[in-house]
Amino acid sequence: DSAYALRPWILTPYLTPGNQNEWRYNIGHRRTRAVIERTFSLLKSCFRCLHNSGGALQYAPKTACKIVATCAILHNVATRRGLYLTLNDTDSEDEEQELPHRQPGDGSIAMEGRQRWDHIFTFYFG
Fold first, then answer.
1. Which pLDDT tens digit goes with each residue over 64-86?
2. For the chain, which residues make up each domain, given as ranges?
3. Cα separations (Å) of 40 from 50, 95, 96, 97, 123?
């Protein structure tokens, strides 16, 4: 997502792709992000504890991860058993918004993010 700075755990698209491989990377990034956004939207519509939380669950990161994982597991169990969860309407806040790109900041985390980005790009798209 171009709204975030490049980090080892967050890969961002190229701002101005300069060749076909960079375009392919951006297309793959966009498609992957779309799947993730649809998944989050589905989970938020089924589990109100994930919705309207101001953009982030108001818990420690480990607890928030457990909550999201539990909701995903419950969704999968219900789907496998043919129990379809009621989908609630989601607000327009769930729609994808284009945010300005934040350039990677200085420091070792940004450098590690750039190294990971370069490695993944070279391995899969280079």
1. 899 999 999 999 998 898 887 66
2. 20-88+105-125
3. 9, 11, 12, 15, 28
